[in-house]
Amino acid sequence: MNVHKYIKKNYIFLMLCSLLSCLFLSCHDDIYNMITREVASEDGLSGDIRSIVPFKNYLYLTNNNIYRKTAASSNSTGQYNGQWAKVSSNLDDYTVLFLASDATYLYALTTTWEEDEDESETVEAGRQLWYSTDGTSWTEISISYTSSTPSNLRKLFDNQDQDSTGTYVVPTSNRKAYITYYDGSWHTRELNGATTPSSDKVSGSTYIQAAYNNGTAFTTNYALCAGNGYLYWAENGSTLYYGTGSSLSSSGSVDLDHGTILSLAATTDYLLVGTTSGITRVALSNGVPASSTSSFGDNNADSLLTSRVPLLYIRNKEVAEEADDEYGAMVIYSYISSSNDTFSEVGLYAYYSGRGSWNRDGD
Question: What is the gyration radius of the CA atoms in the chain, in angstroms?
């Protein structure tokens, strides 16, 4: 017998067995986790969910139309999917782009459309800014911008400050709403009902997001939130920045290596992160992010929200993650044919702690 040949063959056999065993167990664990986290898909609101804001005991959202539901926690109502109702108002003939709120008013940025006969396509005809005291009756706010380009009335947003200690989540007195527009130069101005905005809060750039942390910080990127005494933000990349105070002065950063960060929402123990590659989360220790992302464990978030997640909303950031209602929106970028997702998967998702899983969320 060729002893060396025998030993070599058995060594290779043992190595292959060991490798296959590891691969099988690893794959088995991954597949098992995916199976155990699967839930039957429910119906939900479709389209691009661009805003979720609290106002007078309701949560409002827009996906070109306005919907609302109670701002009470599902922990007290015992209700999950099917709570959103379309709001009928004098904005029904407009496309509602964004919503924002302060303690007194709800605001909407809308657009109208017209046919471009030369190009044989539908184009924006003009944008409008509105306020409401009840969410159903709207009054236009006078604002002068370079209307030859409708998108010069660029972005409506607020600083996200809210109070979740009562039955309903409500805007605080510190919550302010802002409009960014161009009239020869860029302005970002605070809104106050019917009053025409006239004083710049910040200027010179297209600011599109804000967060309140003992003062309001502004950014030209979408990913910004506050919680635990920190501001958390991204700058059109995979790096997460964080710092105390009311300005974007970084005291640290973490490259999450999970796609470009599009949205952020904080709880006491985790930071939810929406990216171009789906949803992930980062553990927080006294507000400071860990050096890498964390698994969702038995939570099925990352098996559902697998594409671009441009919006996250936490009903109560003063409690642990999974302790109260959480919302996320998923969209498809570019063409549907180039995406692994379908139109039925695009739209609103929610996590309810009493249900213990993420699913589609709708009316």
Answer: 24
